[in-house]
C-alpha cells in the first residue's frame, strides 16, 4: 500500500513569499502614483483626432475685432466652490463672452487661488477634454501654481456655444466654467483678387520649437512666451521671404495654406521642405514668394498632426 505524500512549507519560506509579494505591491504602487500626472493628463490633440474626436473650431477669416478678457482663478475658503473672477452668486462670476465668427478673444489668466489650475476652451458641454489647440494655458500635468499667469487666444470658426474651463480634472464640475456665445459672421471680406507686385519686400524668421514632452509644438516660442506664433501682416503683391530653422528633435516642414487642416495644399510656392522630405533637427531653409489675394491664411508645419499640436499662425494679406 502506497502512502500519500504531503508537501509542507516552513514558516520561514511562507514569510519570505509574503515579503516578496508585499515588495512587488509597494514597487508597483510607487510606479503608479509617480505617474499620476500622466494618468490624468489629456492626450495630445493629434492623438484625439486619430481617435475620432471632431475638430472643435477650425479658424475662420478674421474680422479684425479683438476682445481682451481677464480671468482669475478663484476658490472659496472651504475649496468646495471654484470659479473665475468672483465667487458664485457674486457679481462678475464666470463672465459670459459674446462674439462673432472670426472675432478673436485674448485671455489673460492668473491663478489667484491656493491650488493648481490650468485653462482652455472647449465645445464639449462637460468634462475637461476637447480643448481647442492654441487656447491652452498650462495643463493638468503642468498647471499654474498660485500666483502664476499666462495668455492664450481663441478664434471661433463656427457659430455655437463654447466653454472656457479649468482643465484640471474635477474643477469644471466645482464651478470653473464660463460660456462663450459665438454669433454668425458679419458681412464683409476680401475681393479675392491679387494685386500686382508692389516692389516691397519682407523678411520673417519662423523657427520650429517643441516642448520637452513634445505635446506642444510652436513657432519661435512656446505658448505663454514672448514671440509665440507671431501674426504676419503684409499687403497683396508684397514679396515675402521666410527663413525657418528646426530647433526641435523631430522632423518639420513649412508652408502657407488657406486651411490649416489641409496640409497638402501649400499655396504661392511657400514650401520649405515637405512632409516626405522634412527638415531634420538642426537643419534650416528659406522660401521667397509673392503674397496673393487679400484674406486670412495660415502658416503651418506641413508634417501631419503638427499644426494640430500648435504649429500654426495667422498670415494676413491686406
UniProtKB/TrEMBL annotation:
Pfam families: Copper-bind (PF00127), Cu-oxidase_3 (PF07732). Residues 94-185 form the Plastocyanin-like domain. Its EC number is 1.7.2.1. GO terms for molecular function: copper ion binding; electron transfer activity; nitrite reductase (NO-forming) activity. InterPro entries: BlueCu_1 (IPR000923), BlueCu_1_BS (IPR028871), Cu-binding_ET (IPR050845), Cu-oxidase-like_N (IPR011707), Cu_oxidase_CS (IPR033138), Cupredoxin (IPR008972). The keyword Electron transport applies. The chain crosses the membrane at residues 20-39. PANTHER family: AURACYANIN-B, COPPER-RESISTANT CUPROPROTEIN COPI. Keywords: Copper, Electron transport, Membrane, Metal-binding, Oxidoreductase, Transmembrane, Transmembrane helix, Transport. It is an enzyme of class 1 (oxidoreductase). Residues 230-318 form the Blue (type 1) copper domain. This is Nitrite reductase protein. It comes from Marine Group I thaumarchaeote SCGC AAA799-E16.
